[in-house]
Amino acid sequence: MDVSEQDFDTAVIDRSRTLPVVVDFWAEWCGPCLQLGPVLERSVAARAGKVELAKVDVDANPTLTRIYGVQGIPAVKAFKDGEIVAEFVGAQSPTAVERFLDELVPSEAEELLENGDEDSLRRAVELAPTRADAVVPLAKLLHARGEDDVALELLERVPGSFAGQGLAARIELERTREPDLTDAFSALDAGDHARALDLLLDVLPSADGARDDVRRVVVGILDELGVEHPLARESRRRLAAALY
Predict the structure, then answer these.
(1) Contact 89, 105 (CB under 8 A)
(2) Contact predicate 22/78, CB 8 Å
């Protein structure tokens, strides 16, 4: 799609709020531009519906060239939500162009994660076996229906995930039933994070051999809440006091 100064805002800026738009600043007299153009077109066409390509003739559109600081061509700039998020200058190999576009377009696994249903999560885990944001939600579904052994096997794939470690610790605590954390886990399942954390933090000092598992459950909850959540900030303070 050829874009000019008259329709750039609509075709690129506004459109980039819906999906990424890659702008190719080029000129007919530019040999590398003629080399890169077909590579870009093929790669974008292969991602139909996920990214769009706009071509700007720098000779016909000097204002755009100046606004976006184009000093050498071909200059390729990717827009998302109205802003430039990635760019390169000069002819690139097909592999480099593919890699550039892959960073702009959600992977199949990422698209599946947005669906959130079990079939989508299972497929996402097949595609990306060590992705915690796929493994942990699937393990939660399995745990909810009592398939704890399968859930634990999955969680072994993401040892660095605090949420994953927390879920694994919860399963172990539920199996030993010592201490009894039924009320805490019921509150957690109901979405009452404040009550769940209160109950867990209250029992932590006297949890004896289960202390580390209780700590991991608390840390997992805090990780899922996020560092800026007010409840997480207060609970981190309480956790430190209970441990030290």
Answers:
(1) no
(2) yes
Sole residue written with tokens 């996020």: 226
pLDDT band, very low/low/confident/very high, at 53 (cuts 50, 70, 90): very high
* 85-126 confidence digits (pLDDT tens): 999 999 999 999 988 998 888 777 888 888 889 999 999 999
Query: Is the distance from CB of 72 to CB of 83 less than 8 angstroms?
Result: no
Return all residues near 54 (Cβ < 8 A) that are at least 6 apart.
1, 2, 3, 8, 11, 12, 21, 22, 23, 24
Residue 239 neighbours by CB under 8 Å, 6+ apart = 201, 204, 215, 218, 219, 222
How many Cβ atoms are within 10 Å of 27's Cβ, its own excluded?
A: 15
* Catalytic residue ranges: 30, 33
What CATH number matches the domain at 108-243, 1.20.1070, 1.25.40, 2.60.120, 1.20.120?
Answer: 1.25.40
Q: Is the pLDDT of residue 182 over 90?
A: yes
CATH of 8-102, one of 3.30.870.10, 3.40.50.720, 3.90.79.10, 3.40.30.10: 3.40.30.10
